[in-house]
Amino acid sequence: MGVGETIYGYVRVSTQDQNEARQLAAMRKFGVPEENVVVEKLSGKDFNRPRYQRLVRALRREDVLVVKSIDRLGRNYTEILDQWSFITKKREAAIVVLDMPLLDTRQSRDLTGTLISDIVLQLLSYVAQTERENIRQRQAEGIAAAKARGVHFGPEAQAPPENFAALHRAWRARQLTLREAADACGMPKSTFYDAALRAETAAGRV
Question: Residue 42 in contact with residue 12, Cβ under 8 Å?
Fold first, then answer.
């Protein structure tokens, strides 16, 4: 790193993600000063990145931004390319992607090196987005196939109260209305009815 250059690291994880430690370890191994590592935790639905935006605005010419993988820069192909262009061309800073040594613009500031780096980036960004879309499609297909087999998704049904069986029999014998039986069990009518159907199915009555 030359005189006057500053090296920064950016770590982004979701609120449930467990790879924060791996990213931080990679930053330390590369030599990013601990005080220059910016960590941002985001939920899956919220991609506002105030810490990242402040970091990018603070970059100066020939500073270095280190990320573990290219998807730390954005959510999709277009956003990653936009961020790459803004950092390397507008801010004139360098980017190092630890998972892909070819994406290290410190060593490719000439025209040919920049062109090669940009081509590699576009290819990898496209592959990364395509794989994410394929994963989502496979998940959707898997869920649809499981539902077709009768697999239930969602929270497990709670066990009915102890008086459910007696009230169920009274309801089926028309000694109680559905509302009366459900109220006596402390259950909503729909929950009582669903529990009744499950019980009857299990008993072979439906």
Answer: yes
66 by Cβ neighbours in 10 Å (0-12 / 13-18 / 19+) ranks as buried
14 given a catalytic annotation: yes
- What are the phi and psi torsion angles at 34 (to 5°)? -55, -40
Ranges of H-type helices in 149-177: 164-172
CB of 59 closer than 8 Å to CB of 90: no
Q: Is the pTM of this model over 0.70?
A: no
Q: Evaluate whether 116 touches 108 at the Cβ level (below 8 Å).
A: yes
Would the pLDDT of 183 be above 80? Answer: yes
- Mean pLDDT value across residues 94-102: 88
> pLDDT tens, 6-26?
999 999 887 655 568 889 999
What secondary structure, in 3-state letters, does 116-137 show? HHHHHHHHHHHHHHHHHHHHHH
pLDDT above 90 (res 41): no
What are the φ/ψ torsions at residue 9 (nearest 5 degrees)?
Answer: -125, 145
Q: Say which of 14, 43, 85, 108 is annotated catalytic.
A: 14
CA-nearest of 153, 151, 95, 148 to 125 is: 95
pLDDT score, position 9: 97
